[in-house]
Design goal:
Chain C: Keywords: Electron transport, Heme, Iron, Metal-binding, Transport. Chain C: InterPro entries: Cyt_c_III, Cyt_c_III_dom, HmcA, Multihaem_cyt_sf. The complex is a heterotrimer of chains A (389), B (354) and C (539). Chain A has one domain (18-375). Helix content of chain A is 72%, strand content 0%. Chain A is built from 15 helices and no strands. In chain A, helix 4 (52-64) packs parallel to helix 15, helix 6 crosses helix 8 (128-155) and helix 12 (239-273) packs across helix 14. Chain A is globular, with a radius of gyration of 21 Å. In chain C, 37% of the residues lie in helices and 7% in strands. Chain C has a two-stranded parallel sheet. In chain C, strands 2-3 form a two-stranded antiparallel ribbon. Chain C has a two-stranded antiparallel ribbon with strand order 4-5. Chain C is extended and about 90 Å long. The chains are: A mainly alpha (389), B mainly alpha (354), C mainly alpha (539). Chains in contact: A-B, A-C, B-C.
Chain lengths: 389, 354, 539
């Protein structure tokens, strides 16, 4: 509809220049990575085999892409129709999120070409990583299928679009099932290393923590992303979308608030059950409270206030706050509290190149997102399919 | 909705569930080790820190030459770990019993009975052999390094500088040599037999006898007998194992058991969620239908009511109009009659009125 | 206005988070360990006297005794400023002789402590708390850490007291009775008991009884009072402060007399240790364990004081307490255990095991399993004399007979010497395993001679290494002692085999023996890792 408006007029906006530079640097780093091995670009070592490519690209990426299953489930399975206009942006975010996770994994894996091995060659069924891999693989396919109607509408392939559109419900159910499994399994990955993860973060409830936090992570990401979209793509949105977005914001804010409160509850339940109260008095305990109070409890309250006062500005800020909290949590589990017994000199800190690649991956995501939303019916309903859900 | 497709997809999720269940079953059985498994017993009271084992390991496994030769014992002054080029290291520790006499410990893969690395590997690149060794198959490895996260002793190392075919490297217990009936390289060379090779259960018996015979020399504990479900590399020592850099308090739960709970959730999720969600969907769909019907009914009822009310009003209006008309007519008639009865001098007026 | 408040709230939240994070991160590096405060004192007394009247209402008061002694000394005051005297002896209690009731005791402390502090303050002197706030004194926190160490009256210290001019000499009675006494039940008085002296703790236990003070009060009243008196006469006196006796530093500085003359308490030179309890002797007429000749005189020289063995009283162990079957009096420790328990320092074996750990002995003994006894173990101590069997003879023997027999048995224990020097190989070439190294040249004779010299030097070792081959078995073990022991390879195979008696392989057998012995004897050279010092590297 208005693709030409944004991209056609002038290619050299500040955005494209910055993005271009990032992409060029990213490509150079990519070259270095695949020519020289992981050692050439990363600070990873034998004690710290997983760096920010896992912490940020994988753990945060998957958590923040959880908006896909939460929104589709809310809309289609729980019948909250007013979320309908949020479904497509959420789906795009989820699809891109997962695609980028897989993309970024190619950097982190020693032999990326063997990525299909766990699924097609040798199945290590006792591994939680296998569960993650299989679920992500299937879920990415599911998301792709869920995404195709958007592309088909854009391409005008009516028949195919209608066939796929008919699968919405089973696809949504599968999305929830697969997400439940791999979101929780990402936390369960760390169950195998009780001696390496700090007792405050290690818990047999880790899978539950990861799953529950993925719910509000996904919703907050949808809110955060929509606030950005409203800024940048306002002209693309149809009236329904604009009208419904307030309802979506309020609904998600309320849901997040409740879920986050519940999350805090079971976090403390975990501490109580394993009697780890004494740890709260240590430096790590402080940090744990920073994460839990500063980045879960306070945003939860903030969401509640935002909902009560219909304060959309506050909800937007809180969404970002929550997203940062999730990032903090995933980093804490995978980096800060992991290998906590190692002396400071042997701890890991990412190299510039690692950070560069991560930024590169995010930039690619933003570019792909831009490409899709400026061309395909995401923020508006395609005129041919008005009112069909 | 396409029913056949739906069933197909449900089938696919069931496959995931099946995969999960089998893994769980494997993790939930109490495994006490292969009966004929070999093991190595390390006696910290015997080790003199000569690094001969490192040398032998290097030669047997054809690993790259180190920067400093193996007879350079100053290397012991720094704490080292296993790397992709060194499968085993000997470290020196302070002796809390006798400060003048440092103690040493050889570090290498402990060859768990239920290895964390094997349980963590999503392509089964690690395998526990019945002979006791945990071996690695580089032809399957994807290079995810989850094994390194999982290993409680942080043993596996990775070829970070290898761009195309990086491998995870660790002690193999000289598995090929064991199959040939030879001793592991380090055991064979150890001058003081600080490393003893034998069947695991026999070594444990031996170690117990030894601890009993020399109660002052040893702590009453065989490290590795139960740690993390038991290992095929065992340790006895005169000083607490923590002082030898061996983590105490690892517990006796094997790695597969640690994750079996999470894997057990897979069939629950795949079984419960679709049913529950489909149910929820059906409920809300039905509710929607009912609501729609109720709404329709209400609308039609309202319409009927409105119509009848309108009709009633109309008829009453009509009636009222009727009465008014009649009255008017009556009045008119009366008037006409009266006029007609009046004298004829005013003839024009009634004509006009009529 | 509204906007301002909003910003304020956010600012506060952010500031809170930042400070929290910063402290969190800073504290994260190291988990803080409680740091032991620098000062170490031996004079910290926790005043919890009221405990005897029930649960304490307030935390005990940490009282630094020496600090107070010093402060009072500067004012020209002595112990009597705080301690009352009774029969020329200072009471250990503060400003009273008896704990009458809780109120009085409490008042004694409050009035006198605070009173004195106030008085000193009024004189413009540095002093302790003068306020009436409870926590000034009753707080658990003590700034210094305690390095209090118990002191024991060892042989040297005991002798110095005997020899001291401050203690009346002349008659034994006057000398010993200055400290040693016994409690006469009838007269309820302390009377001298010549020939019955024992350790204070035999009567003065941890807890006081109606008639007998606890060991703490008894020793402090006696020792400190005497030291104070002697010091008052400007004579050479013992310490009067806490740390004088109870700090490790001061204890190390105590003068030690090397060759202490034997104590005179009519103790025997040799004792024939037999089963002595009446019950066993009455019932069992045969098959009792043969007696052991015990060299009491020699053991006196090795031990610091009588309590090393006579831990509860100076009496026969077996008569009443450690009977064959065990008795309540002896904590049900049977005679066999009392003599043989390997982990008790009071038992024969336990103490000897400790001696075996000395570096001269450890070379061989560290390699010999301590947890097991061999067939010969019993006869090393229990007489082999076939005539000494059953109770009959022992019962019929007079005390003198027994002593004479014991003396004779002890005399008989002489090292049997070694095999003929000329027949002991001078050098042994260990060439069984020549591989990367040349054969090791083992200076066999030199080592044998060194070992023998060490054995002969030690009375204990001489008493136990009684046959010519005994100490050869340090290396040539597990086969009968012989002039021509079998080669090591006769038993030790190539590799360790957990099933065949768990013998080390030949290579390890050599290395464990040589290196093990050298390490145990703390021989610096050759270092365990200096391979070429023993066998040249093969070119």
């Amino acid at each position: 509809m208005s693709a030409e408006n944004t991209t056609g007029r002038s290619a050299l906006t500040p955005f494209t220049i910055v993005a271009g530079i990032i992409v060029i640097i990213g490509l150079i780093l990519t070259g270095l990575r695949f020519m020289g091995g992981l050692g050439a670009v990363t600070n990873l070592d034998n004690n710290n085999p997983w760096g920010i490519w896992i912490s940020f690209d994988l753990l945060c990426g998957v958590a923040l892409a959880a908006g896909g299953y939460t929104t589709t489930a809310a809309c289609y399975l729980f019948g909250i129709k007013r979320y309908h206009s949020a479904v497509r942006p959420a789906l795009i975010t989820a699809f891109l999120g997962y695609a980028l996770v897989v993309f970024a994994l190619h950097y982190d894996l020693g032999r990326p070409l063997r990525l299909p091995y766990p699924i097609f060659v040798s199945q290590g069924t006792s591994s939680l990583l296998f569960e993650v891999g299989l679920c992500v693989f299937i879920y990415l396919s599911v998301l792709f299928v869920e995404f195709t109607p958007i592309a088909f509408e854009w391409l005008g392939m009516k028949k195919l679009r209608n066939i796929v559109h008919g699968w919405t419900i089973p696809l949504t159910v599968m999305g929830v099932v697969l997400s439940t499994m791999h979101q929780s399994s990402l936390g369960a990955l760390y169950l195998i290393a009780p001696n390496k993860l700090h007792p405050l973060w290690y818990s047999t409830y880790l899978p539950l923590f990861f799953f529950i936090s993925s719910m509000f992570a996904g919703m907050s990401m949808v809110l955060f992303e929509s606030s950005l979209a409203h800024k940048n793509f306002h002209h693309l949105m149809d009236e329904t979308h604009k009208a419904e977005s307030e309802g979506v914001a309020l609904g998600f804010a309320k849901a997040c608030s409740w879920i986050m409160m519940g999350y805090i509850g079971i976090k403390f339940l975990g501490i109580a059950l394993e009697n780890k109260w004494a740890w709260l008095g240590t430096g790590y305990g402080m940090w744990f409270l920073v994460e839990l109070v500063g980045f879960v409890l306070m945003p939860a309250i903030s969401y509640a206030i935002g909902y009560r006062d219909r304060n959309f500005g506050l909800i937007k800020i809180t969404a970002l706050w929550t997203v940062l909290g999730i990032v903090l949590n995933r980093f804490n589990v995978s980096q800060v509290a992991f290998n906590w017994k190692l002396p400071a000199a042997e701890r890991y800190f990412p190299s510039m190149a690692e950070i560069g690649i991560s930024i590169f991956v995010v930039t690619i995501g933003i570019l792909a997102y831009r490409f899709i939303v400026t061309r395909m019916p995401v923020f508006y309903e395609h005129p041919d399919y008005k009112g069909e859900h | 909705m396409n029913r056949r497709k739906f069933l197909g997809l449900v089938g696919a999720t069931a496959a995931v569930a099946a995969a999960g269940t089998s893994a769980h079953a494997a993790g939930n059985t109490h495994f006490t080790g292969h009966p004929e498994a070999n093991a190595v017993l390390f006696d910290a009271t015997e080790c003199i820190g000569c690094r001969k084992c490192e040398d032998a390991c290097n030669k047997v496994n054809e690993l790259p030459k180190p920067d400093k030769p193996f007879d350079d014992l100053t290397v012991l002054d720094t704490k080292r770990r296993t790397t992709e080029k060194i499968y085993t290291v000997v470290n020196k520790y302070e002796n809390s019993k006798n400060p003048n006499l440092p103690v040493f410990r050889k570090n290498q893969c402990n060859h768990c009975q239920e290895p964390a690395c094997a349980s963590a590997c999503f392509v089964k690149a690690f395998k526990k052999t019945p002979e006791g060794a945990v071996v690695y198959d580089e032809s399957l490895c994807v290079g995810c390094r989850y094994c390194m996260i999982a290993c409680p002793w942080s043993i596996p190392a990775y070829e970070y500088d290898e761009p195309l075919t990086p491998r995870v490297m660790k002690c193999t217990m000289c598995h090929p040599r064991i199959l040939e009936g030879k001793l592991p390289g380090c055991v064979e060379i150890c001058p003081k037999e600080a490393l003893k090779f034998g069947k695991r259960d026999e070594l444990i018996k031996f170690a117990r006898n030894r601890i009993e015979a020399y109660p002052d020399r040893y702590l009453d504990h065989i490290y590795g007998e139960n740690e993390m479900g038991g290992t095929n590399w065992l340790y006895i020592s005169g000083v607490p194992f923590g002082e030898l850099g061996l983590e105490e308090g690892l517990g006796v739960t094997s790695a597969p058991e640690l994750t079996s709970g999470a894997l057990a959730a897979v069939p629950v999720v795949t079984g419960l969620w679709p049913v529950l969600l489909t149910g929820l969907y059906a409920i809300h769909k039905t509710r929607e239908k009912i609501e729609k019907k109720e709404k329709d009914d209400a609308v039609s009822a309202a319409l009927t009511k409105a119509a009848s009310e309108a009709e009633a009003k109309l008829s009453s209006e009509l009636e009222k109009a009727d009465v008014a008309n009649k009255r008017k007519i009556e009045v008119e008639v009366k008037k006409a009659v009266e006029e007609a009865l009046l004298p004829k001098d005013d003839d024009d007026a009634p004509e006009e009125e009529a | 206005m509204k906007k301002g408040r909003f910003l304020l709230r956010w600012g506060a939240i952010v500031a809170l988070l930042v400070t929290f994070s910063l402290t969190g991160i800073e504290a994260m590096g190291v988990v803080k360990q409680p740091v032991a405060s620098g000062e170490q004192r031996a004079d910290i007394i926790m005043i919890d006297t009221l405990k005897t009247f029930g649960k304490l209402e307030e935390a005990p008061v940490a009282f630094l005794h020496d600090q107070h002694t010093d402060a009072l000394k500067k004012q020209g005051k002595d112990c009597t400023a705080c301690h009352e005297t009774e029969k020329d002896r200072l009471s250990t209690k503060f400003k009273r002789l008896k704990d009458v009731d809780m109120g009085t005791v409490k008042e004694t402390y409050h009035a006198n402590c605070i009173g004195c502090h106030k008085e000193m303050k009024s004189q413009g002197q540095e002093t302790g708390p003068t306020d009436v706030s409870c926590r000034s004194c009753h707080s658990r926190e003590v700034k210094a850490s305690s390095n209090w160490k118990a002191i024991s009256m060892n042989k040297s210290l005991h002798y110095r007291h005997i020899a001291s001019d401050a203690i009346p000499k002349g008659s034994e009675e006057a000398n010993c009775a200055s400290c040693h006494h016994k409690f006469d039940e009838q007269s309820k008085k302390l009377i001298p008991a010549p020939g019955e002296e024992g350790a204070c703790s035999y009567c003065h236990k941890e807890e006081a009884t109606k008639d007998v003070q606890d060991i703490r009060s008894a020793s402090h009243t006696s020792c400190v009072s005497c030291h104070v008196d002697v010091a008052a006469q400007k004579a050479d006196s013992g310490p009067v402060t806490c740390q004088g006796c109870h700090s490790a530093d001061m204890q190390a500085k105590v003068k030690v007399v090397k060759d202490v003359p034997r104590l005179k308490r009519n103790q025997p030179d040799a004792v024939l240790l037999t089963v002595a309890d009446a019950k066993t002797l009455a019932t069992d007429s045969k098959g009792l364990m043969k007696p052991v000749a015990f060299d009491h005189k020699a053991h006196e020289a090795f031990n610091d004081n009588c309590q090393a063995c006579h831990h509860d009283a100076i009496a026969s162990c077996a008569t009443e307490c450690h009977t064959v079957a065990g008795d309540k009096k002896g904590g049900f420790v049977k005679l066999e255990q009392a003599m043989h328990k390997p982990d008790s320092q009071r038992s024969c074996i336990g103490c000897h095991n400790e001696r075996k750990a000395a570096k001269d002995c450890a070379g061989c003994h560290a390699l010999i399993p301590e947890g097991r006894t061999s067939d010969q173990s019993c006869s090393s101590c229990h007489a082999e004399d076939a005539k000494l069997d059953g109770t009959a003879q022992i019962k019929s023997m007079s005390k003198e007979d027994k002593a004479a027999m014991a003396t004779a048995m002890i005399e008989a224990r002489k090292p049997a010497g070694i095999f003929k020097i000329s027949e002991i190989p001078e050098k042994v070439l260990i060439s069984d395993l020549v591989d990367t190294y040349e054969p090791a040249e083992f200076p066999h004779r030199k080592i044998v001679e060194t070992m023998y010299a060490k054995v002969a030097k030690s009375e204990l070792a001489s008493a136990f290494h009684t046959s010519k081959g005994t100490f050869c078995q340090g290396c040539h073990h597990n086969s009968p002692a012989s002039e021509n022991p079998p080669r090591c390879a006769s038993c030790h195979g190539k590799n360790f085999d957990a099933t065949s008696n768990a013998r080390p392989g030949l290579k390890a057998a050599f290395h464990q023996q040589c290196i093990g012995c050298h390490t145990a004897m703390e021989l610096e050279k050759p270092a365990a890792t200096a391979c070429a010092d023993c066998h040249k590297e093969r070119k």
